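Recall from the previous lesson that a structure prediction takes nothing but the amino acid sequence as input. Here we apply that procedure to phosphoenolpyruvate--protein phosphotransferase from Sphingomonas endophytica. The sequence below is the only information supplied.
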Amino acid sequence: RRADALARAGEECRTADGTRIELFANCGSAADAEFAVHNGAEGCGLLRTELLFLDRDTAPDVAEQTADYQAVVDALDGRPLIVRLLDIGGDKPAPYLPIEGEENPALGLRGVRVVLAHPHILEDQLRAILAVRPRGRCRIMVPMIAGVDELLKVRAVLDRLTDGARDVELGVMVETPAAAIGADLLAAEADFLSIGTNDLTQYTLAMDRGNAAVAGALDGLHPAVLRLIGETVRGGALRHRWTGVCGSLASDPLAVPILLGLGVTELSVAPAAVPEIKALVRDLDLTAARDHARAALACPDAAAVRRLAREFAR
Ligand code: PEP
Ligand code: MG
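The prediction returns the following tokens.
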């Protein structure tokens, strides 16, 4: 099956009943992107740019960042690249941007909050992305959004740098319950929504993703998380925006039928998982997946959803 999946890796991805699903990969480097393309990825749905910023004493300048992003675009050979703005704070420190001791780092300066507090970092990164050629091949994605005001602040800087051209897409990550519940409001200002299920699960269940004591219970298939994913898709659709998933739930074969059944149309998965998830999508009947997702939403807990999902897979 894996050999067959690899052989068909280059083909575009549709469900058995013909619905187009975009199968992207999460990358941290041009080497990741190359490997992802080899495996049949149709683009990069999440470039973790903080990986380019780690292990150094100073932030990379515009030219250096541009070279890094250009290398990923080149490796993708015409496929789209979604660049996530710097996502540090919480469990992701950066030495040159020290964040004062916080009692609750996960609830403190993280993601978009950090770059809004350091406008030069935001502006440099946007300039670097805009300098990549061909222009428009890179889309921009903002992490850890809790409200429309944060998106509008990023949008204002981007508009200033592009003279209002709006020729580069700007999307948001849905990683907080606030973003999921307010997805319709975000979608009015964003070009797309991509759900970060790792953080969305942490914040919905109030369980620290780095805490081994709760790791066993931290499951994105919890019905409350799935309901928020459904809300996000609904909110996006009201504004004719697509919703994807770039958290690790997208790489979980048991989760994929539920995600697509809820209306997700883009998955960004670990590069190594692309062939398997693509093969799974091709075998999937979307009508059956919708019924399955409805049943999952009615389950009492994540364990019950997993049982149901294992039955569905058979
Ligand atoms: C997520 O939170 O699901 C996500 C994709 O971002 P990260 O894991 O990098 O926080
Ligand atoms: Mg996250």
